[in-house]
């Protein structure tokens, strides 16, 4: 397949030039920062966000902790599955990178100048963006587990998409397609994944050895003061009891 729009006056290309032109006006250190953040920083931040959410879910009650942990397990599994789906999709669409079709782009990705065919059976096509797919799949999977953390993850995924266009390695529609693919894989397969993962996670939670992966050890609730140690009668009460005894 020839691919999506590769030239001509259209919104996709115009938006690509507008976003990428910021790289010409920004200082060099900022461009390098955006490149590193988009390539490695945001995926790492999403992984750390999932670990942070997992730390909080372990303190919940057993049923909630089991469901949340299963959703957190599903997030990276869905991201990996989405990337696998993208392999034949990119080959089928066959859309070259934007800098191979348009002149004047500021390309900030150090590996972007590699030949179209790497010799390893992998072609460097553009649609859809692997980074956008990965980021949004992790973010939506995190949203299934915890909305507050999920919203933070979705915000990071949007920044990831901007970085990929800013560095000149993807069209905006490549990023949008990645967002759609990552979201679809997570949500469409979530019911089946949860049906399979919930019993497995519940069995892990009951295990005396690895159960703490799902839920932290319950803290002993403090006993009421009156039941733990009966208070000694006050002086007035002692006098009244002695009078009654006499």
What would your notes on this structure say?
By secondary structure, the chain is mainly α. It is built from nine helices and no strands. The protein has helices spanning 11-20, 22-25, 28-57, 62-93, 130-145, 147-166, 172-206, 225-228, 235-245. Helix 4 packs antiparallel against helix 5. The radius of gyration is 28 Å and the shape is elongated. It starts with 10 loop residues before the first helix and ends with a helix.
Throw out a few tags for this protein.
disordered N terminus, elongated, 246 residues, mainly alpha
Q: What is shown here, in short?
A:
This protein is mainly α. The protein has helices at 11-20, 22-25, 28-57, 62-93, 130-145, 147-166, 172-206, 225-228, 235-245. The chain is elongated.
